[in-house]
Amino acid sequence: MSAALDRMLTAIADPKRRRAIALLGERPRSAGALAVALGLAPPAMSRHLRALKAGGLVEDGHPAFDARVRIYRLKDGATDELKRWLAETEVLWTHQLAAFKRHVESNGE
């Protein structure tokens, strides 16, 4: 497992961060809008957004009309490595469980 995948899994381990990801999946939002939607104080939301950025899941930018505001959005392709790892893990478990089933059935006779 790569360090980037480790950071991503760490970032999504928190339920508030997963909820923030769900909200950003609907549309880009400001940190303030996310904080209100999640019932968090701005400093707490800031910490969660830093973790999500460190995990490579979100990115931020400034709208053309106001450089003081940051708008957060999901990063394109951010979960590609996670999806690959999950698919590989599913194949591994499928093979392991099938082998275990064969073992149990052959020893039960």
UniProtKB/TrEMBL annotation:
Database matches in Gene3D superfamilies: Winged helix-like DNA-binding domain superfamily/Winged helix DNA-binding domain
A GO MF term: DNA-binding transcription factor activity
InterPro entries per UniProt: ArsR-like_HTH, HTH_ArsR_DNA-bd_dom, WH-like_DNA-bd_sf, WH_DNA-bd_sf
Signal peptide: none
Pfam families: HTH_20 (PF12840)
Domain HTH arsR-type: 7-91
Domain of life of the organism encoding this protein: Bacteria
Protein name: Transcriptional regulator
Organism, as annotated: Sphingopyxis lindanitolerans
